[in-house]
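Budget justification aside, the reviewers requested a transparent look at the raw inputs and outputs of the sequence design task funded under Objective 1. We therefore reproduce one unedited record. The lines immediately below are the structure tokens for a 454-residue chain.
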């Protein structure tokens, strides 16, 4: 059995890959300049010509060119002027787009980042197949697919690479009642699950309620759970893996780029980049405050800019996602042979809080809380009494205490959690407890904030 999906591309040395990338990058930038008014305007505004890019350093010096808000503006302009929603950064005739999927759309106009020409669709399937292969998916697997499928959301596009790989995808969608999913699963016997961690939790609980038996008897051994933190927290991961009797891998394709997956290593090592020939992400880091390029060395933290390679319809160039990542350049213990670095996703830049000037990401708070499982359930909210990012201390955290915890044990538990927040992050916190399951369970994305302001 092959070790990677695409042995021709993934087994190249870093030096060989760099040569391919710089060639593809120059080609992509030239293409963007000559095929899109948006990019021409952008490049001209900073006095830059695609021919100026001779080296990696030349490229790194270009400032960020686009973000979500600008993508929306670009879409608005193309809708008004040309009657299509793909944006002024579209580089091909709109009729070449054969798939148009939106991201989230939870705030503002949805963006059509997951819109592909046939060429881009093939490219997407190829990049994602590498991701799924590293995450452990193989021919003959049966994959239960439970992301939201409705409303044109990009979730449904995540399953097409399975068909490209020749793998059976049982797409039920997270909208299906969980009881129905359980019934179906017992008949058709998938051995892999693709969903959010929250959905997997609901499946565990529903199965227990319906049958009184552990969910492990369903035979789901491969857990490809993504979209929320959790896999990097040993206690959370262990609980999930024990419940199913399987292995949890997470993966990421961010804004239809940045193909990456976690690996077989015992301890979580972050996401391996598996398609350096298709996009640039971890190697183009900027400082969180100054937006200046920062050196990409082991452990570096910054915002990664996305640039597409070999994309025909909607290539991204120096795109700011607003995601904070940590990059690891040292070899991973798993032995993955590819030339890519590893990435840990630290959270959204917008979610960053400042408590007395100390910056803290919600994911870091969650790490502290979940380290107290089973004394807590792991479900929590950060309470915001005023609009973020500035928080007047103490940082208020609402926490579900664990099932076996007695009321008289709560003061000690609060003291332990608050002590750890202070010790690890130098942040004064104040914990408020609620009973297990009081914060509810959702099959989509679990919120991290509880906003108590207008
Ligand atoms: Zn690894």
């Amino acid at each position: 059995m092959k070790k990677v999906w695409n042995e021709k591309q993934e087994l190249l040395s870093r030096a060989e890959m760099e040569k391919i990338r710089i060639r593809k990058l120059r080609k992509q930038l030239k293409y963007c300049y000559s095929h899109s008014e948006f990019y021409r305007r952008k490049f001209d505004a900073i006095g830059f010509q695609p021919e100026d890019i001779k080296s990696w350093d030349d490229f790194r010096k270009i400032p960020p060119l686009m973000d979500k808000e600008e993508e929306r503006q670009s879409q608005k302009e193309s809708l008004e002027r040309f009657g299509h929603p793909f944006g002024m950064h579209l580089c091909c005739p709109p009729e070449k787009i054969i798939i148009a999927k939106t991201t989230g759309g939870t705030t503002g106009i949805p963006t059509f980042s997951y819109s592909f020409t046939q060429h881009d669709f093939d490219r997407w399937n190829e990049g994602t197949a590498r991701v799924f292969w590293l995450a452990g998916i193989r021919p003959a697997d049966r994959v239960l697919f439970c992301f939201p499928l409705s409303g044109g959301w990009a979730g449904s596009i995540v399953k097409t690479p399975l068909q490209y790989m020749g793998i059976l995808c049982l797409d039920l969608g997270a909208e299906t009642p969980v009881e129905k999913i359980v019934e179906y699963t017992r008949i058709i016997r998938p051995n892999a699950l693709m969903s959010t961690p929250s959905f997997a939790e609901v499946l565990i609980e529903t199965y227990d309620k319906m049958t009184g038996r552990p969910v492990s008897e369903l035979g789901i051994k491969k857990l490809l759970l993504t979209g929320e933190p959790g896999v990097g927290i040993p206690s959370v991961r262990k609980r999930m893996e024990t419940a199913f009797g399987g292995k949890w891998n997470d993966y990421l394709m961010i804004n239809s780029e940045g193909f990456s997956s976690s690996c077989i290593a015992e301890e979580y090592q972050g996401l391996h980049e598996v398609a350096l020939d298709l996009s640039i992400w971890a190697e183009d880091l900027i400082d969180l405050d100054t937006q200046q390029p920062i050196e990409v060395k082991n452990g570096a933290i910054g915002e990664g800019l996305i640039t597409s390679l070999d994309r025909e319809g909607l290539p991204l160039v120096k795109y700011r996602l607003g995601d904070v990542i940590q990059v690891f350049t040292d070899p991973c213990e798993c032995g993955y042979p590819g030339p890519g670095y590893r990435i840990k996703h630290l959270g959204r830049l917008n979610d960053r809080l400042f408590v007395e000037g100390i910056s803290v990401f919600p994911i870091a708070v969650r790490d502290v809380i979940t380290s107290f499982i089973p004394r807590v359930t792991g479900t929590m909210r950060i309470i915001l009494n005023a609009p973020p990012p500035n928080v007047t201390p103490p940082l208020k955290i609402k926490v579900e205490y664990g099932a076996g915890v007695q009321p008289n044990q709560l003061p000690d538990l609060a003291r332990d959690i608050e002590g750890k927040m202070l010790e690890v992050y130098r942040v004064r916190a104040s914990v408020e407890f609620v009973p297990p399951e009081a914060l509810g369970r959702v099959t989509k994305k679990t919120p991290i904030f509880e906003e108590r302001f207008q």
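The chain has three domains: 7-124+254-351, 136-249, 353-451. The CA atoms of residues 353 and 388 lie 6 Å apart. Computational costs for records of this kind are itemized in the attached budget.
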